[in-house]
Amino acid sequence: MISAKPKAARHRAKAQPKVQRAHDADLYKERNRIERFFGKLKQFRRAATRYDKLLVNVMGWAKLAAIAMWLK
What we know:
single chain; 3 helices; about 55% helix; elongated; transposase activity; Transposase_11; membrane; plasmid
């Protein structure tokens, strides 16, 4: 038998961290900058697909993409 009254949705309380971990804010900012740079670098198709096998070619393309991003 199906009841006509719908059941209320259950909502779980968000877990609060018991201990705040210490972190280095400057190190976090630098890491964030690097991760954002690689995210932007991947928008260049050639850098994202990694067609080049030689390190010289890859570094040249990475530098060219970085210059293009810097000029924008």
